Amino acid sequence: MDKNEGDDFLKEPLLQHSDSVTVTVYQDEVKKTRTIMFKIGNVKCASCVTSIESALGMVNGIRSIMVSVLQGQAVIKYAPDLINVKLIKEAIENLGFQVFEFPERDVAVCRLRVKGMTCTSCSESIENALLMVDGVKTAVVGLSLEEAKIHFDTTLTDSDELIQAIGDAGFEADLITTGNDGNKVHLCLEGITSNEDLTIIRSSLESVQGVNHVDMDTEANKVTILYDSEFTGPRSLIQCIQEAGQQPNFYHVSLYVSPSRREAESQHEILGYRNVFLWSCLFSVPVFIFSMVLPMVPPYGNWLSHKLYNMLTVGMILRWILCTPVQFIVGRRFYVGSFYALKRRSANMDVLVALGTNAAYFYSLYILIKALCSNSFEGQDFFETSAMLITFILLGKYLEVVAKGKTSDALAKLTDLAPDTAFLLSFDGDGNIISENEISTSLIQKNDVIKIVPGAKVPVDGIVIKGQSHVNESMITGEARPMAKRPGDKVTGGAVNENGCLLVKVTHVGSETALSQIVQLVEAAQLNRAPVQKLADRVSRVFVPVVVVAAVLTWLCWFIPGEAAVYPKDWIPNAMDSFELALQFGISVLVVACPCALGLATPTAVMVATGKGASQGVLIKGGSALEKAHKVKIVVFDKTGTLTVGKPVVVNTMVFSDMPIQEFCEIAAAAEVNSEHPIAKAVVLHAKKLHQQYGLNSEHITEAEDFEVHPGSGVSGKVGDKMVFVGNKRLMAARNILLGTEVEDYMLESEQLARTCVLVAVDGRVAGALAVTDPVKPEAEQVISFLKSMNITSIMVTGDNWATATAIAKEVGIVKVFAETDPLGKADKIKELQLKGLAVAMVGDGINDSPALVAADVGMAIGAGTDVAIEAADIVLIKSNLEDVITAIDLSRKTLARIRLNYVWALGYNVLGMPIAAGILFPFTGIRLPPWLAGACMAASSISVVCSSLLLQSYKKPLHIEDTRGPVGYSNSV
Fold this sequence. Notes:
alpha+beta
């Protein structure tokens, strides 16, 4: 809820008589002071008010309190650093008064970067920790994106407490953004000499219309300003600060742009894993050589068997010395992760690795101590198992983070589309350009005019006011063909200007631009958890305990028969006993069965698919929509603006008199020019085209006098000395204008062709008619045919009449039609289809079709233009091309197939690896899986899953139709 909206009612008087107290709330009057209003029961007299006000006035943190006897309301101003709403409520209740009807709280949204997650149990643990924080409404944690999105009550908690909660759960977190960061600017201040300067700057900024919040960092001399872009902008705020300074205290202000944290943190994580892996190799490789290589080369490895004291050898000491840093310094992360996992009563990969490596290390340490104390003991240490296991796991994590970094490549490319600078133009009173300055894109404000030179990128959304060019919007819409732009056309931030020079008036900045909305939509989708992931979550929740039990049983199943001589002694390798053999099998089972890959199977595929879809012009709102789309068996199409272009055009003109066709069209246009009806605009546009066709330079249309609108029928007016009526058959009948047989036949023929017949009467006689139609999109027929080949049925639902609907359906190849249906009726039709057990997708324009879009299993909003955040739709098709309906469904099918394959990779390693690790092949083939090799297999499973998801980057559209339409529209026949 917006804070300003939530506080408006606080400005009304609490008491309605002349002595009432008016409560006025000044936003940010005192730093970190908030105001809340709620109702109090049992307030009957002035003494009740006095007792409440006096008692609460003594509570630390409450700045002021006012209580109304008549309305039983209290307005309390408090410092959230010292007290929260819950404590205030309890304080009132302790006085014997009932607190009820709490207002809707200010719900804020923040995104946090979370480090240290390894599997789905980690993300679940963080979600649970966040939900336990008082005031948190929802919390979603994305494993592969390594982010958390939290909705919380600002009166009860803040982002610092959320970060602390994640820290208490054993993970690191940093603030990425808050929900209001879209219109926020960060400025660096110079020339600050005292606190008085900061007070002057704060006061000046808060007096600016549109400034919502000012946050001063006194130590770094930085100021953060939250503002409304409709009223002000960064340049105006900088100018305000500069004007606030007076000699000798002149303030210098510069824009502070924080570096891209996503890429920097990704590189930091990759370098971190690489460095720790190399350190691990530095110690582990010698351990491996001393254990597995040199003993196999007798002349060179004999020195390792030299006894230092009793049975303690040089090799044991070296392996212990080299293994210990790996176990406790390099492998510290596994201890920390295990501690926090067990603290929250869960288990993850860290627990398995810690159990396995500790079992190997401390058993080896026991062997070393026993060899030191005995002159006859012979035993085999497993120091190489511990060191190599940690090394291979770190190698796997390093390769995994490298691969995971590529899953968000499409999103990173979208983020980097906007240029860093732009050319700002200044004009004099006559509209002449007086200056041209290159400024940072972050300083652009609404209604600025910027110049886009050939080859440059468009920095923000705007409208062309001068110039013509072709603009490549392929990175935003997926449309490869450059689009012609001329005055009046919209341009989107991130597009590339190819040839001409354009002057563009800025309409959207910051988070309001199409590019920003696309990025936000894709990021939200990547955090959204697909239903198919629930299987992995359920499995991973019980997986670790099951693995631990399986490892213990494996050890027992090998140790007890070994001690009882059930299997031959020659099965036990040299320098080993039954305990050591059983221990190796148990450790291998612990390590090979790690569920990391299972947790990566779904989110990595969803990340790649949503990013790839965005680059193709298909915005999918999360894993749930992505999953549901593959089940679609019926696609319901709206007609106007979906199957048709949505812009009526004149396709035929018939003159029933000796009037020249050019004069006839001019008269019709003169009558229609002041009408806002889409058909009227089509008639006027047709007249202008005739002007061009006959070589007339002027496109000016004469306006009719005595103009009158006849609702539902048409218009009338006087053109010169002629009385003109333009409209339908009803208008002609009302004016007693007779229709001849020729006119009736033409009208019937037009209706059969799904055309609207506009009659033009001059001085009481029908002079001619214009056939107007909303053209069918050229790709519609091919798309319907392709859907049929995918075993998907197409249905049309429209509010138009049956004749038009049937004609359009026949033209595109749709058999089943529902016509003359209102918006709620469309939703009812979809529910009827769903009752048959069919998954239904609705394709509409996202406005009047919103009830149907919500009712459908998958709502697809087409014709969204720059408004990409349509709430009702699950999928937004930016380009308004019907072929993207196929793209969305096909991408969903490919992604679900990839997720299933990922599960095969993830579970396949466990299903095959666990029995082999447990020694099922050992009695027959002598093959066993050493723990360090089991660790390599575990790492390989995670890497294979991420690489499998990355193959979705090569996705190609199943149907691509070249748009042959010209820049103006469709040709008209006369």
